[in-house]
Queue: 2 jobs
Job 1
Amino acid sequence: MKKRQRKFCFRRYIKNGKAVLLLGTAAVLLSGCGSGKEETVKSIKVGVTLYDQYDTFLMEMMQAFKEYMLKKESETDVTISVEILDASGSQTTQNEQMRTLVEKGCDVICVNLVDRTEPTTITDMAEKNNIPIIFFNRELVAEDLERWSKLYYVGADAFDSGRIEGELAADAFLTDDGMDRNQDGICQYVVLEGEAGHQDAIVRTECSVNMLLESGVQVEKLGYAIANWNRGQAQTKMASMLAQYAGKMELILANNDDMALGAIDALKASGIPKEEWPVVVGIDGTDPGLEAVEKGEMIGTVYNDKEGQAKGMLDLAFALATGEGLEDIELESNRYIRLPYQKVTKENVSNFRK
Ligand code: GAL
């Protein structure tokens, strides 16, 4: 049992009574560090390293994480300190940050990997120092997660996000005759893709198109562009695709909302009247994404449950750091927490707005 966990036991006694006092005392004596004084300060330290702190979805997820942290503190009387670092897109930087977080005495470290194929330095360091790691949002392959018993993953099921995006697009094509601009019965589309090699980018692209086909929509891919989840890059790439496929594009499938919004920026800048815009669909349900659905600029998005993921990650971090309540957390295959995606349209968008 770690020292901090022992402190936690002791504090519980103060709140909950005699029986637990004996437990806490026993733990302190066993550790040989009983000072004879009652410790009333209990705290845990959580480290977080982000692949890019300016990523909109992650910014919103970390906001939810901090909000939930305050709630958790007031519910448990345990002080939670969090240190959030930005790896700015460099795996080398992130490996150094991992070292720093270990040296600073973090009880658990949450890692949003820069390169999901390179977790080894981090997992080796974690195992050597016996510090649990919760990877999140950028999923590593199962074999890498299984390398040590205290490695976990919090995220969502990328397949579902693609399928729901495809459903949104298929519903629009099958119900709105005007979407088929050239009336050839085929949906001409382009894709804005996230980072090459990211599980969500690969799976979302494939599943959304498969869902269109399964729904009975014939499709023709005009082109695609990689825009790395980024609004500015998407705007630039879309501006050149609009020129290249002038008047032909009927659907823009974006792997996330920021890129869908970049496409909308390009459409606005192009001067094409709104009634002639291709249909735009995104994924995430970020605040600006939901606003675009509300305004009818995007026909829909797929809610990536940032609040659920933030809560899942903090509850797990708390349980790992204090040694309490791990059995109450539902883990798939003992390691995964995955939150479901939800379909967002103009009809239900208000349920998702804060
Ligand atoms: C995805 C999300 C993107 C981006 C990416 C970063 O799940 O939809 O907007 O945040 O993660 O890894």
Note: Residues 1-38 have pLDDT under 50 and may be disordered.
Job 2
Amino acid sequence: MKRNISLLGLQWGDEGKGKVVDNLAKDLDAAVRYQGGHNAGHTLIVNGKKIVFHLLPSAICHENIKCFIGRGVVVSLDALFSEIKEAEEVLGEIEGRLRISSACSLIQPYHIQLDQLREQSNNLTKIGTTGRGIGTSYEDRVGRRSIRIADLYNEEKLRDKLYQALEFYNSIFKNSFGASQIDLHELLDDNLKQAEDLKPYVGNVIEEIRELQDQDKKILFEGAQGALLDISLGTYPYVTSSNLIGGVSAGVGISPSDIDYTIGITKAYTTRVGEGPFPTELFDEMGTYLAEKGGEVGATTGRPRRCGWLDGFLLNNMVKVSGVNGLCLTKIDVLDGLKKIKICTDYSSAQTKEAIIETMDIEDADPFYLELDGWSEPTAGKTDYDDLNANAKAFVEKIEEISGVPVIMISTGPKREDTIIREKI
Ligand code: GDP
Ligand code: IMO
Ligand code: MG
């Protein structure tokens, strides 16, 4: 029996992780977010109602599950409190089953302001960030000057750290952007007020996870974003600022060898929000069709998602670097009714494949496609693999061949129960 399961998206995010977690949750005891922040948007349909989680683990929907936010997450307290309030309207009180590591770095208003000013500037490379202060907060973390949750409970230290931060940020705001200044006293007051409200949620996550592991409880480590957005192994610089791949250990405080099984999620096609290369992107009516049928609108920013065919070259590479044991294929139903379906299996490029894999510089990659026959009989809502038509099965099996790992789950619709389980973990 696998007890420590890591789950991550293998594309540029929005693979349907929220829905998959919700389906797996009935068999879990605990769920942990370990990287990213409220840049994530994970959609669940619960009792016909849509819920989007940004910072909270998606498994929080299930009353019996203990939820954690590990030290690798950057936390905006404004975002956290508004999400808790929204979640409690649907789920009832969650205070008793949510613990946040006191080692998490905070996202302060100056992080958000700088992220947005940079993105709006005509002189700087636009990444197309979510504007949530994610990258700027991680910059402070790596620069060893983050304000961590524990600092909120030492007023003198907090004041000093905020003073130092504002000396730096206010000078950039004024001199580089001609933008408004942030007041130290107001910011300190806000932090102190929020610290009180946060107290019941702050905990020693490492210890609590160890206890659960000692009791042989089943724990899911929920990745946000997708492997192609990984700061180290993704399509740099058009990435987010955290490590997804291998990030569980540092982002929670467990050993890398604790992970028993890694489940990777891929859509049956590809989407991307924000800037950056996308070799299989479709600019024709097929792209519009996928966007409309798949409802491809950003769950966090409401931006339209760019759409294209499944990229098997990248999928194979991301499976290998992430140590994925089994795949979950989502949104196969979006392809229902298409006459032909394409999968990119290789690139032609001036660079060698090895060089592409090393740098993930895919600007000039020209995709080579395999064309498969589509199917008219819908997969939508199916729950049994044997009920899929032969062409849909051939598509699934081609993905197994290209990725080198089995497809253990297939998502056939946005609802929890629209799921085919081929192999139970
Ligand atoms: P996440 O960030 O990976 O959790 O994914 P998002 O929630 O941002 O985007 C996935 C979207 O697809 C959401 O609107 C889901 O409700 C929806 N979805 C998830 N799985 C399926 C599926 O198998 N079929 C269809 N049609 N929609 C799905
Ligand atoms: P989920 O968890 C899709 C993208 C942004 C931008 C880049 C950097 O819902 O899959 P950031 O604000 O993180 O500095 O932006 O990363 N991005 C996502 N795209 N899904 C996400 O999360 C994303 N989180 C960040 O669009 O291109
Ligand atoms: Mg999303």
Note: The first strand starts at residue 4 and ends at 9.
